[in-house]
Amino acid sequence: MGRIKIELSKKKLYTLYYVQNKPPHLIGKMFGCSFSTITNRLKEYGIPLKTPASARMKYKKYDFSGDLIEKSYLIGFRLGDLAVSKTNPSAETVVVRLHTTHDVQIDLFKNLFKKYGQVSLSKSSTNPSTNLNAFLNKSFEFLLPKWDLVEEWIIQDEKYFCSFAAGYIDAEGTFGIYQERARFKVDSYDKEILFQIHVWLDKNNIINKFFRVAKKGDYVRYGDYHFKKDVWRVNVNDANSLLEFINLINPYIKHKKRRKDLEKNLKNIARRKLKGSIR
């Protein structure tokens, strides 16, 4: 007896297998045939069979857009606040993790990654923190390295560096009003990254300072812990320089609180200019 011929077009099979992510045995049940019949039809049509890892994926993952401004931002945000890993070198899933107590950080994380893959959220039972995981495909392997440096392709392009700095500042930076004056600072263990931000500010004629604010082992009373490394700071206190800095970075900031605080800085500078306390 000859093989039973099923009516299943290449387009329909591709949609079921790749778009709807249905495994061959379920497709076989839909058409009253076996698992092997479906896998043979996939081969006949030249549709690549999924690897075991990709076949186990429950949720659809989408490739990174390739936009270098977005990539620069994500790298900056990752180096400032995210943990990124794969379960093993050959794994096809890149897991991005965030541990936070701030709702605005949760919203930002979701907005950055939900268009590319599943984002899961779990609340801690012992404290008010939230753990978030984004499950992405291999096109996000560029987020794996945790380097204390800014990559050369970012340094060489002003827009890329602005976007990188915005991502890092959304993770680690602060715009505030202190002694009735607008100020900016970013504190971090990442000495080389902060030094590169300092050099970039200098290049743009923005008055800033780069210095160590704490030593490894120093005790932090409000958090009851000791610093694991030296802590470094870049700050901008001069009003006109802060205005220039905000104009550079404003188009790239995504964090809602950073944006609100940044606007408060602008209003503070405008008010002081009207009073004539600064020129």
Structure description:
This protein has 279 residues and is an alpha+beta fold. It has 3 domains: 10-49; 68-143, Homing endonucleases (Endonuclease I-creI); 152-275, Endonuclease I-creI. 43% of the residues lie in helices and 19% in strands. It has 11 helices and 10 strands. The chain has helices at residues 10-19, 24-31, 35-45, 52-55, 68-81, 103-113, 152-155, 158-172, 191-203, 239-249, 256-275, and strands spanning 83-85, 94-100, 118-123, 130-136, 173-178, 181-188, 209-214, 219-220, 225-226, 231-236. The strands form 3 sheets. It has a 4-stranded antiparallel sheet with strand order 1-2-4-3. A hairpin with a 4-residue loop joins strand 8 (219-220) and strand 9 (225-226). The longest helix is centred in the C-terminal third of the chain and has 20 residues, at 256-275. The termini are far apart.
Short description:
This is Homing endonuclease LAGLIDADG domain-containing protein. InterPro entries: Homing_endonucl. With 279 residues, the chain is α+β, with helices and mostly antiparallel strands.
Strand order of the largest sheet: 1-2-4-3
Strand content: 15-25%
Are there runs of 5+ residues with pLDDT below 50, and where?
none
In terms of quaternary structure, the protein is single chain
Kindly name the structural category.
alpha+beta
- CATH fold label of the largest domain: Endonuclease I-creI
Q: Any idea how many domains?
A: 3
Distance between the termini: 94 Å
Helix content class: 40-55%
Largest sheet: 4 strands, antiparallel
Report the CATH superfamily of the largest domain.
Homing endonucleases
**Counted beta strands:** 10
Radius of gyration: 25 Å
What is the global morphology?
A: elongated
| CATH structural class of the largest domain | Alpha Beta
- Give the topology string: H per helix, E per strand: HHHHHEEHEEHHEEHEEEEHH
Q: Helical stretch count?
A: 11
